[in-house]
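Q: Hi! First time doing this. I have a protein sequence and I read that you can turn it into a structure. Is that right? Here it is:
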Amino acid sequence: MFRKVLTWMLVVYVLTGALLYFFQKKLIFHPTVLAADYAYRYDVPFQEMNVRVNDKTTINAVLFKATQPRGIVVYFHGNARNISNYAYVSKYFTKHGYEVLMMDYPGFGKSTGPLTEEELYADALQMYQVARTRFSPDSIIIYGRSLGTGVAAQLASVRDCKRLVLEAPYYNLTDMAMRMAPIYPYGFMLNFKFPTNEYLPKVTAPITIIHGTDDRTVPYTSGLKLKEFFKKGDSFITISGAGHNNLKEYPLFGETVEELVK
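A: Yes, that's right. Below is the predicted 3D structure, encoded as structure tokens:
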């Protein structure tokens, strides 16, 4: 009887692990696709861009413009929907003279191409190069939210910028997975690692982390662990009571991000 139960437990373990492995992309990414002729509508002046990388990859992005621009924020959004849902952040920067360049990941919105960790890093570098045609590194802020914090951290580890801002960041995706089901060898299973903890020590620019204490998507403790890689001049902003998707409802959030560009 014991052997039979053990056998069934092993079967369930293996099958569940196989499902987690083969469907990990669907578990991590939740895009909303837009038709190629979809027309964006925003309350601030903007320019839509399509950056063709190769025959398979075209990055769709939006540049939110500022009057008399003096800098730019290269923004990497979370794991769901598309850039239409993150446009709100532009208002914090454009009114202070900073443009905002926001791209969609492959398979999100109008962007096309293979959705891999390496591709995300390559596309982020393309966005940085677009920003560099407009401003010098000391006028470029690299900003990541949630899933995008790993992308932003990697970019800031290989390119100069004025500041790296991470909103609701994770230590790495293996750490996140272990919190959900700590019985699998995710170090071997995950095709997406986003090791933010490995990138931060290589970032020479000042780092600002913003995280809510009641975040149930990316636990506050996961972001807090990144403080061990801080250098002089880096800062961790705790927003008490804030969750993952309502940070913008707290005055401290707006005050913090606006202070970065004043």
